[in-house]
Design goal:
By secondary structure, the chain is mainly alpha-helical. It has one domain. Helix content is about 70%, strand content about 5%. The chain has helices at about 20-50, 55-80, 90-115; strands at about 5, 15. A two-stranded antiparallel ribbon has the order 1-2. Strand 1 and strand 2 (about 15) form a beta hairpin. Helix 1 (about 20-50) runs antiparallel to helix 2 (about 55-80) and helix 1 (about 20-50) runs parallel beside helix 3. It is elongated and about 50 Å long.
Length: about 120
Amino acid sequence: MNYDQKPGFLGLSVARNPEDEKKQVWTKLQGLRNAYLEDMIELYGMLTARSNQPMPAEQLQKLKHYKDVLHRMIPYLRVPQDRVPKEFNIDKVDAFEKQIVNIMETFKRRRQGAA
């Protein structure tokens, strides 16, 4: 039997139902897709265009880092339900969401500052 590593009520471990967790993961991924995918694709395109412009090496390195991260994340938001990796549990999706939010907020602030 698989047990959640987080203590539940009164510090007891709670058994997770794998099918319920798969549904939760899929639902969460779809929510992230609806909320962020278009903006992530747009940001990726903007970073690609900017990476071809002259800039200091350190700035170019940071820009390419964000571009690479987006390049790795976008396919997870496009994955069909039957192809979601088994190791992609709800905790990983929550961490994934935090990373998306941080990247999007970073560039939103930069765009607002430039406007």
